[in-house]
Amino acid sequence: MIKQISIHEDTNLVPLQGLGVNSPLGFDVSSAERVRGSLVELLSPAKNLECGLAAINHGADAVYIGASQFGARAAAGNSIDDIETLVKYAHQYRSKVFVALNTILTDDQLPEAEKLILQIYNAGADALIVQDMGILKMNLPPIPLHASTQTDNRTVEKVRFLQDVGCSRVVLARELTLQQITEISLQTNVELEAFVHGALCVSYSGQCYMSQANCGRSANRGQCAQYCRLPYKLEDNDGNILIKNKHLLSLKDLDLSESLDLMMKAGVMSFKIEGRLKDADYVKNITAFYRQKLDAILEGNTQYKKASAGKTTFFFESKPEKSFRRGNTDYFLHGRHAGIYQPETPKSLGEPIGKVTYIGRNFFEMHNGHLLNNGDGLCFINKHGDLTGFRVNRVERKQIFPADMPRMDEGVFLYRNQDQAFEKILKGKTAERKIAIQIIFKETEIGFSIEMTDEEGISAIFEIVADKQLAQKPDTVIDNIRNQLSKLGNTIYEAANIDIQLDSPWFFPASQLSEWRRLAIERLDTIRANTYVREKKRKAINANYPTKQLTYLGNVTNKLADIFYREHGVNEIEPGFEVKAAEGVPLMFTKHCIKYEMGWCPQEGHKPTFNEPLFLKNNDQRYELRFDCVKCEMQIVKSLD
């Protein structure tokens, strides 16, 4: 008979400021140690709550998600309630939730944004991702600020400034090389985050105004119309067509999965997957892939540690080529090279399959090392250079019968951009994330106790005052206790070890042990939730902006941003392009260079056979290309003639 249950926690704990957890070890993990690279974070995107939960379950150390408004993906907004739900779930694993509020704001939006930030903080979010420096002049709660990649973070001076004005983290420009990242890391002491996978903007982030100029949809306000994905003619100054109807600005998707260890050594601590418009299947597949890549690097490595808790077990083989991507490129991480863009199509090609070897009346055969399934989507680049897709109706041995037979020739290369069997797998249970706990069940003078300790050293102890009665089958007592205490399947825990310490073989009804286990887990959950400590906002110090003047590229669109920059030494400020569009200025700044891709680079000795300037043309839109060979950059300017 149970007379009394007494529950207490292990209070011999020291807060870990960097991890937001308690540890019996008594050491402190500060933000500085995060900066030095001791903690490594996998950061996954969340279009919505479903995607956020999927990211956590598949091993993400952190998730970034948009709020109801003011995010750089206007189509990926979420309620405060959903953010709070995601936060509570993520924090169980010590994973973090960052909320993107990374658009530029108008004066009339400032009060609403300030109110929303407080709601985000009260929902438990771990950081706010921002672009508009006017936010730093608001009455903010003590939430850490991350400088979005939209703030165009390419130089040591810019990153150091953002660090000094109070940003805990800076999201680096995608165009940086390993050497540039290393230089920034060595000369700053702020957390560095870098994209490692997903879609690439051809322009430096925050410096693209093509969409705003053409249709009033600002990329800096989350409404980009993606003019970079359109087909263009390339003409010279004499009107000669050099290239016809190719996607000359459409980049392949980023894939730095083979360079994670090098990026770590360069100073990157957060590895970011792009995709806040992608569905849960994408999040599962790509997060799983990078989780396993990072775990392989961290295994046995004493210099780096995973930034969250729990171990993820996967029930499928992750394959990035089976999720949406426009080919893949390592971009500029290892220096400039050709082949970073995809001229044929801005759509997903998928995984390479093989060449068509024979074409029948309503079927074809191919060299193929892959198993095709009924319902698969295949595609190819036709002789006109366009992407053509079709669906597989059925497969009979070597013969593949499309739903509608496409016009294609023998020898054409096929890709699979929809794998029916793989998608079916992703709809099921694909991963399980568990936190290991040690369980001690022991006899006391007044009854029994259960102590549960998680992998971070956080403990909950249950003391039970109970009558003791000898078991009629003493040989089964230990197995019965172990069996009941190990039943943790509907919790976030798994028993790494169960230590049973009894003086005599006492009788325990299975239902009683089950109830004790449930109460112990409930208490451990409460203690772990109460010991989670959010990082505080970084303190700002006096700092001057790297320049005294700001052009439209400063994206100053409200009074608070204007005040902020003037307080930091800027004395000439032009309004942002969204406030006052300037004529004749570049609408896009890119590291991607069409002349280099075509083999026409003058730095490599090429002498042009065409009359410059060059122009891009799509219907009635015409843009002049300007080449800054000193900076190795290309600018795109709307032609006024």
Return Rg in Å: 29 Å
Q: Spatial order of the strands in the main sheet? A: 4-5-6-7-8-9-10-14
Which whole number gives the mean pLDDT?
Answer: 92
CATH topology of the largest domain: TIM Barrel
Counting helices, strands and paired strands, the structural category is alpha/beta
Low-confidence stretches: 1-37
- What is the number of independent domains? 4
State the name of the first-level CATH class of the largest domain: Alpha Beta
Helical content (DSSP H or I, runs of 4+):
10-25%
- Count of helices? 14
Strand runs, count: 33
Model description:
The chain has four domains: 1-35 and 434-525, no CATH class; 39-200 and 253-303 and 316-337 and 544-580, Aldolase class I (TIM Barrel); 217-251 and 593-641, no CATH class; 349-427, Elongation Factor Tu (Ef-tu), domain 3. Helices cover 22% and strands 28% of the residues. The protein has 14 helices and 33 strands. An eight-stranded parallel β-barrel has the order 4-5-6-7-8-9-10-14, surrounded by five helices. Strands 1, 16, 24, 25, 26 and 27 form a six-stranded mixed β-sheet that branches. Helix 2 runs parallel beside helix 9. The N and C termini lie far apart (93 Å).
